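User: Continuing from earlier, I have the next pair ready.

Assistant: Great, send them over.

User: Here they are, in order.

Assistant: Folding the first of the pair now:
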Amino acid sequence: QPQLVESGGGLVQPGGSLRLSCAASGGPFSLYKVGWFRQAPGKEREFVADIVMRTNRDVYADSVKGRFTISSDNAKNTHYLQMNSLKPEDTAVYYCTAGSAFAYNYWGQGTLVTVSS
C-alpha cells in the first residue's frame, strides 16, 4: 500500500506563502484522488482540498478557496498544496491523504504550518 510523506511546513508571516509536498511511495499503485486535511490545536481535522487524478477536478474548502492550489506531478508521484496569502487561522498540522472515490484510505504523518508574526 502507498506511504505518504509530507514536507514543506514551517513558520511563515501572515500574507506569506508555503508549498507543501506529499511524496507517495510503495507502489506501483493507482490513486483515485489525493487530498489535504488540516487540524488546528483543539479542533477537529477538517478538509482543505482534493483532486481527482484522472480528471484533475479539484475541490476546496471555502476558507481556502482562491488562496490555496492543489496539484500533482504524476511522473514524480508527488502532490502539492500551494498556500498563498496565509492567515494566522491557517495554522495547523496539514495531512496528505489518498484513496478511492468513497474513502480516504491512506494518510501521511502530517507537517506543521505556523502563521505568525
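And the other member of the pair:
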Amino acid sequence: VQLQASGGGLVQAGDSLRLSCVVSRSTFSFNIMGWYRQAPGKQREPVASITTGGTTHYVDSVKGRFTVSRDNAKNTVYLQIDNLKPEDTGVYYCYADPGGSGYTRWGQGTLVTVSS
C-alpha cells in the first residue's frame, strides 16, 4: 500500500491550502485516516484525523482552521488549511490506520512553508 501526499507549497500568512493524500488501495479498509506534521526542529505531532464514520478530531492549535475529510470513492484523504500561520510551517504526513492487528501506513510528506 502506498500513500502519495501533495498540495504543499510556499504561501503567505492568511492564505489557504488543500493537501491531498491518495492511497493505492481502497480506503474503506482503513478505520482512521489523517495527518501529522513535523515542524523544523520538533517532533512529529498529530493534527487531524477522520474515521470511516466521519468522526473528526483535531489538535487544539488547529481547531477552526483545519478541516479533514475523506473521499472513499477516490481513495483520498484531504486536509483543508485556512488562515495559515507561520507556525503551521512543516512537513505534513498523511497516514492510514486499519485498526485491529493491522499496521499504520504513511505517506512521504508534503512541505508547507508559511511566510509572515
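Worth noting for the second one:
Residues 64 and 76 are 22 Å apart (CA to CA). The chain has no helices and eleven strands.
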